[in-house]
Amino acid sequence: MVKEKISVIIPVYNVAEYLIECMESVINQTYKNIEFIFVNDCSPKNAEEIIKEYQKKDSRIKYVTYEKNRGLFRARMAGAEKATGEYIAFMDSDDYATLDYYNTLIKCAEEKNVEIAVGKTIFRNVNNVDYTRNLHDECFLFDKIEGEDVRKTYFGQKGLCFSWHTVWNKIYKKELWDKCFPYYKRIDTHLIMTEDIAFSSVLFYNAKSVAAVENDGYYYCENEGASTNASKTTLKRFTKNMADIKRVFEFVNEYLGEVGADKYIVDSFGETKKYYARMWQELADFTFKGEELETANKIMRDFIGDFKEHTNRDYHFFESISSKWNGGLESIKETIIKSKCKYVSFDIFDTLIMRYVYNPEDIFLLMNKKFEKLGFYPADILLPKKQDMTKWAVVACDQFTSEPEYWEAVEQQVGDAPSTLRLI
Q1: I want to staple 5 with a disulfide (CB 3.0 to 4.6 A). Which of 69, 85, 152, 337 is the partner?
Q2: Residues β-bridged to residue 87
Q3: Are the C-beta atoms of residues 252 and 97 closer than 8 Å to each other?
Q4: Distance (Å, rounded) from C-alpha 132 to C-alpha 146?
Q5: What is the rounded distance in angstroms from the CA atom of residue 93 to the CA atom of residue 98?
Q6: The pLDDT of residue 415 is above 60
Q7: What b/e readout covers 120-132, taking b as 16+ CB neighbours within 10 angstroms?
Q8: With left for phi above 0 and alpha for psi between -120 and 50, is residue 290 left, alpha or beta?
């Protein structure tokens, strides 16, 4: 069976120090039928040199560049025009993905027959601490959304859960992207702020199905020098960012009007606009003084009229709870992939099985049916041939898997015991 190809678009601008980690992440993905399209948006330093060096190592890497900086939105568009895959995805060049990320997403998309598959987002702060935002993840605890529910769910969260509109934590059917592409071409300005909303609002309006995965994820790395970082805003930068935001909301509203979107969709998107107005008005009020503040207020009136409010705690609900990320299932996968072991044993018994069994091997007999489709029978190859123990209470992994007889049996069956990796 021929596996579908994924085209991953990666714009590059002013992130040369992060680029190698990004490139290592993509070329080492477990899913191999991928092309990586790096778009050099006139990046300073040695980005081109790095990309071309990796091209020598991996023929799947394509390189696009041009004479003048066009901004993130048009860089993604330029890369997408070169895409030849059945699916399309996006990555920022100062981020990276877990090794099994695209394999998990395309498996989800194919098995559930959806146009959009959503992955987990893992955040890495400037101190290299990884964490997840729990309530963002909670938004995607569904098996599949179809039909009108797709656009209602996307627009109904009113911009508060940004994991819906970011483009880098998803893969899209190329057919869906191609349907939306002519509308995107109407934006011909330099755009780096909220461009995700322009892409996603049209994609989710047209999508007929979406599903999500829980484990493998995209690492969004907080970078103080990033073009979209608003934490160190000057008036010049504020002016540019608000011009971008205004253009994006104009674009989406024009699109919704053209396709005759329902009032609920239009009104919900109007609330998204108010949410962004609150955030940027708050930033202006806390950042600027005197004439600079007057100028910022004029910019805000041009965007939203006389509406002038700040956010409150309700608007930060989805950022209110976070948990340190410990690697999850992905850390187990990486341990296996990067190890030189020939055999792997999973000790899965603690917390999963809390009952008496007559013989320990009964556990494996119960597992045989699960593994039957893989042609692998744990009870046949991983059990001691002689078992003296009876009525053994299996209550924790060490009560079973640390027994010498068990591992002696494994050694007899698979040979070199030191090359067997145990994951507890």
Answers
A1: 85
A2: 6, 173
A3: no
A4: 27
A5: 14
A6: no
A7: bbbbbeeeeebeb
A8: left
For residue 157, is pLDDT > 90?
yes
Please name the amino acid found at residue 112.
K
Token pair listed for 349: 């018994």
The owner of tokens 């009229």 is 305
The C-alpha atoms of residue 374 and residue 202 are separated, in whole angstroms, by: 41
Inter-residue contact 8 to 89 (CB < 8 Å): yes
Query: pLDDT-based confidence at 297, cuts 50/70/90?
Result: very high
Reported in sequence order, the residue ranges of 41-165 that DSSP labels E, i.e. its strands, are 61-65, 87-90, 96-97, 116-124, 130-133, 145-146
Strand locations in 80-133 (E)? 87-90, 96-97, 116-124, 130-133
Do 394 and 400 meet the contact criterion of CB atoms below 8 Å apart? yes
Over the stretch 15-24, which tens digit does the pLDDT of each residue have? 888 999 999 9
- Interatomic CA distance for residues 275 and 100, integer angstroms: 35
pTM of the model: 0.81
Q: Which SS3 state, helix, strand or coil, does residue 423 take?
A: strand
